[in-house]
Design a protein that fits this description.
This protein is an alpha/beta fold. It has ten helices and 18 strands. About 35% of the residues lie in helices and about 25% in strands. The radius of gyration is 20 Å and the shape is elongated.
């Protein structure tokens, strides 16, 4: 039998494992470290306090920080097929008569692209990319106004927030840059955060987050919602089962882009 590892060695190996896999189950870490579940839980708690990871149901995920907002075109090239399917599924949830808020970002753009042109709905958005692509969309489409944000090709600022105060929606569909149980939904800029928070506040219905699996465990600069404020998460089948179970415990309904429903 090998010599038991000291705490510093165990924690280093946990970090090495997460650096490769981004997510770890407690049972796998027990096998890796040849130690008890109680010991692994203590190590995970210690690492969480240091900000290295976030504990989840049955394991942990690596905390990944986004410090700078990527250019829109750079983000559009990351997981494009997953985003397209997510956008298509999210758009299918919009019903006749809905008033919907949709924010900026590449996944949110996919949502707007997939709304049927003959839909009897009204959309309010700060998403300039989608506006330029859609031309005459067929449904009622309103830009909220505000200051141009070149990196995200969006509108934000005080004027945008004040305009949103004149409207109530019954759904909001949000793209985010990071999502986790502890830190909730986050975005990289304060301007976008102010717009999204106002959209959520003015929504008298479902808060829907549409984002691909790579955003899970990522923490950006500004929180826009806690995980308990989210009603539905639309993502792809890259999201692992333990994460889905953890979200179910918070009453978040998960919809996969392949149109498979995991009941909450």
């Amino acid at each position: 039998m090998s010599k038991p590892l000291i705490p510093a060695q165990r924690r280093e190996r946990i970090q090495e494992f997460l650096a490769v896999h981004q997510i770890a189950r407690t049972v796998d870490l027990c096998d890796l470290l040849e130690t008890s579940e109680a010991t692994v839980r203590r190590d995970l708690e210690w690492l969480e306090q240091k900000g290295v990871l976030e504990r989840t149901h049955g394991g942990a995920i690596l905390n990944q920080r986004i410090l700078l907002e990527q250019e829109y075109q750079q983000r559009a090239q990351i997981h494009p097929e997953e985003k397209r399917k997510i956008g298509q599924l999210a758009a299918s949830l919009i019903e006749a008569g809905d008033i919907v808020f949709v924010n900026s970002g590449t996944t949110a753009t996919q949502v707007l692209r997939h709304i049927r042109s003959d839909s009897q709905i009204t959309v309010f958005t700060n998403n300039l990319s989608a506006a330029l692509e859609l031309g005459t969309p067929g449904f009622h489409y309103h830009m909220i106004g505000g200051e141009f944000q070149p990196r995200s090709n969006s509108l934000a600022g005080r004027f945008a927030v004040e305009n949103l105060k004149q409207v109530y929606a019954n759904k909001v569909i949000l793209g985010v840059d990071g999502i986790s149980l502890k830190h909730g939904c986050t975005v990289p800029t304060n301007g976008e955060a102010e717009v999204v928070r106002q959209m959520i506040e003015r929504t008298k219905g479902q808060v829907i987050v549409a984002t691909d699996h790579s955003k899970w465990g990522v923490v950006s600069n500004f929180q826009v919602a806690t995980i308990d404020e989210v009603d539905r998460l639309i993502t792809d089948d890259g999201l692992d089962t333990s994460t889905i179970e953890a979200l179910k415990a918070h009453n978040v309904e998960c919809l996969l882009a392949e149109s498979h429903l995991i009941p909450a």
